[in-house]
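TL;DR need structure tokens for one chain.
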Amino acid sequence: MKTEVYSWRLSADRKAELEAEARREGTSVSGLLDRVTADWLAERHNGHSDDEAQQAALRKRAQSAIGSVRGGDPTRSARTSELVSEMIARKHEKESRAFARIRRTTRRSD
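>> reply
TL;DR here they are.
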């Protein structure tokens, strides 16, 4: 026996769609919503089990790789800011040299 009431606001269009679908199925809006929510919950419950198994498999694969990456530089993590700054400086220096070459070539052809 149904004893609980749940209400929420929805657009007029959504309400009309629900009423039309209930008429098409020969049931009430309440009956339609009861079936739809029961189906959705069952799907979520079943899918949740599959999701847990998939997550467990992913965790197992990830754990096998944890700690296996070696970079050879034990201070690399502490020096990240310095290393990134060096990489940016090298990139800018390379771009500056290329720009200077283009400028020299352009001046010669003028």
